[in-house]
């Protein structure tokens, strides 16, 4: 079992920055691909960013490319999401997710592929 807990959400103005953190506990953090998803009110959950278990391969949704950066600290069993130049359309509950994936150069982009989820953290960007 893997337990995930997000933190770092909050209220920020357009153009501002936030850093989200996802702390993992329980089973080994290794060989688990991880990702960030978000869900805005009235919308379906969508992929934001993902990382292979080594952290060397990452991917982003087109809507956040160039603004968000995902990273992992294997020693601290954490995943970070640095969010810059935030826009009102980034307002959502952000979730981290994890799933076993031994391929060091791969990650999933479909939420159905992830087995473990955090409770979410609210990000609100005011205009």
Structure description:
The radius of gyration is 13 Å and the shape is globular. 0% of the residues lie in helices and 51% in strands. The chain has strands spanning 2-7, 10-13, 18-26, 32-39, 46-51, 58-60, 68-73, 78-83, 92-100, 116-117, 121-126. The protein contains no helices and 11 strands. The strands form 2 sheets. Strands 2, 4, 5, 6, 9, 10 and 11 form a 7-stranded mixed sheet that branches. The chain has a 4-stranded antiparallel sheet with strand order 1-3-8-7, with no helix packed on it. The mean pLDDT is 95. With 127 residues, the protein is an all-beta fold.
Summarize the structure.
The protein is built from no helices and 11 strands. The chain is globular and about 40 Å long.
Coarse structural class? mainly beta
Termini Cα gap? 40 Å
Number of strands: 11
- What is the 3D shape? globular
Low-confidence stretches: none
By DSSP (H or I, 4+ residues per run), the number of helices equals 0
Series of secondary-structure elements, N-terminal to C-terminal: EEEEEEEEEEE
Oligomer: single chain
Give the helix proportion (percent range): under 10%
Spatial extent as radius of gyration? 13 Å
Largest sheet: 7 strands, mixed
Mean pLDDT: 95
**Strand percent estimate:** over 45%
């Amino acid at each position: 079992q893997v337990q995930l807990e997000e933190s770092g959400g909050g209220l920020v103005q357009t153009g501002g920055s936030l850093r989200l953190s996802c702390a993992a506990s329980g089973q080994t953090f290794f060989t688990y691909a991880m990702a960030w998803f978000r869900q805005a009110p009235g919308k379906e959950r969508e992929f934001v960013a993902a990382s292979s278990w080594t952290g060397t391969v990452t991917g982003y949704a087109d809507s956040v490319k160039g603004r968000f950066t995902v990273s992992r600290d294997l020693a601290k069993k954490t995943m970070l999401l640095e969010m810059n130049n935030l826009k009102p359309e980034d307002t959502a509950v952000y979730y981290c997710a994890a799933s076993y994936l031994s391929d060091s150069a791969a990650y999933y982009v479909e939420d159905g592929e992830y087995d473990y989820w955090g409770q979410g953290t609210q990000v609100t960007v005011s205009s």
